[in-house]
Amino acid sequence: MMKEKPQGFKKGDKVVMHTCAEAKLDKYHGKIWTCITDEQELPSGERVVGLEGESACFATEFLALVKM
């Protein structure tokens, strides 16, 4: 039986950064971001998502879903 992958972040989800260098910066601390892509897995195995206002993908291990 094939294991299903856990459902990751989806486009439109609201997230906040945690336990990373960026989360400690005043301009990002506590900021709520909107995902502009669904979560994707890179060839390296790292899971990333696009965030509104950022030019690069961001590692999902440092994001938490915000329930609104």
Automatic annotation (TrEMBL):
This is Uncharacterized protein. It comes from the Bacteria.
